[in-house]
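OP here, attaching both records as promised.
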Amino acid sequence: MDHLLGIKGLTAEDINLIFNTADNFKEVINRPIKKVPSLRDITIANIFFENSTRTKLSFELAEKRLSADVVNFASSSSSVKKGETLIDTVNNILAMKVDMVVMRHPNPGAPHFLSKNVQAKVVNAGDGTHEHPTQALLDSFSIREKLGTVKGKKVVIVGDILHSRVAISNIYCLKLLGAEVMVCGPRTLIPKYAESLGIMVEYDLRKALEWCDVANMLRIQLERQDMAYFPSLREYTMQYGLDKALFESIGKAITVMHPGPVNRGVEISSDIADSANSIILQQVENGVAIRMAVLYLLAGKIKSLD
């Protein structure tokens, strides 16, 4: 691959290559000297047209762990506010001899468009409601780390599937790796095409939890909703929130995940988020290793051209 634009363009072999590379980098970030010189001659621009905390910090840390030169760009303080186009903005950055662009954008397909119009490797850090490939990769990597394999595991994704780029990328990734996938949430937040993706749909959270090995709890994407999809957050929590009473009543161990940010007391209670069954913090740590692997592998394509 010349770019990482989405999971949809990857194969299982691509994903396993990324995972095996991330295994090596996880050892690096857990040793006293956490830096390697792998990308010391590469310059990477982080271009975020949407707010981000974890993803942006994770990419920046991954880049610095690889010894890359890093340029950070925020649209809120840029010439985009004066009417400059996306391509002009990026080309001006690339004129400073940038090799790779990590971009988050509110419009679906923006990284794909960019990849066809600029001379740099492009990594999609989330484009609208379309895809978020590195999040899906780190989620599956975390399942593999916790349970030994992804193949054959039953994974339910709970919440706002309709507006979630994380859900779509996770579905593609999990299916490629041989997992069984179910989505669960209010009918208004499950896309009509869901079953055409080869997954199951369940509207009862208890039944979904009784079925699964792993529950990936998504937040409600209120910033992407242009209408009310359910009466209130309180009612949503009563129907689809995971708390200690419900968890313990299932009577089996379930691995609990969350891509963040966690809205405690809405989709998940604090006692579950902080429990031994939760791998939320491991996901954050694995995110750095996965992003190091992606950047390293794409940088290899740059060096092969030199």
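Record two, same layout:
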Amino acid sequence: MTAIHLGIIGTGNAARDLHWPALVQIPEKFTIPMVCNRSLPKAEAFADLVGGAEVVSDYRQLLANQTIEAVLITAPIDLNLELTEAALIAGKHVLVEKPLAANLEQGRKMIRLTGAYPNLVMMVAENFRYRQALITAAQLLESGTIGRPYAAHYIGMAHIDPSSKYATPWRLTHQYPGGFVTDSGVHDMAALRMLFGEVEVVAAQVASGNPAIGAIDSLSMHFTAPGGLTGTYSRYFSAIGQHEDRLVILGSKGSLSLDNNRLIISVGSQADEVKQFDDNGYLAELEAFHNAVRQGAEVVSSFDEAFKDLELLINAYELAAPGETLTA
């Protein structure tokens, strides 16, 4: 099966640290003839990394390249709508980084694009939908391994230093609600929805431990899910000396514990079963995009799904601080 000629718009952290390590594993599925970044030195450094791609600073030049079939967009999210629409007009398939858009209004416009260009593949780079640990956990819940799930607790703690390479200007000064919490939290919302269906936020609270990284850096919420499940979710980005990413699900016959990519299954008096996974979904995500373009495979990480992830977070912010705009 022929490789997709993929153009990359945005050559920062996401392209370099997340997507390229996966792309390099499947050279038979993707080639990268051209990359684009507003900063030419960054684009040139990335081009050297991938083996000498052509470099441009204007995305319109990349989209005008007739050899490019698809684009990977890893730019600041307030540009997602503009870049996605331009790519579709140019006849390119699109894989765009999460969050889907800077706000719900832009997100709705993104969804409308799927109806306007039905012959082009549009997919969100939500790698959690392709993480084998989460997929396995969802399968175990579906099969009734731990009985009826009735409670869940999801907690994430990390510390963002304002000098970190991830504390980029667009993350610190962007005009979308939630700052770092949204940037990471959409992953978590995708996970909750994968596991439990359409969850509903019933209470929420936001806080700021370090104003240098935004108006809020912490979110706690209570949620409910179909079947009577109740749960809590908390994400903190100013947790000094603490780092955790853990989800515990309690069921009528046992429990599941997901600690990063380590899944522990406890059922009755049986010895715990431990499954260790070594993927974060990026490779499977790119393979899924290739299959959608080349074979017409269904897109799991659709614009619609990504919109619902973002909407869930925005609903939590609205409950926590009604009427306020929680920008960084």
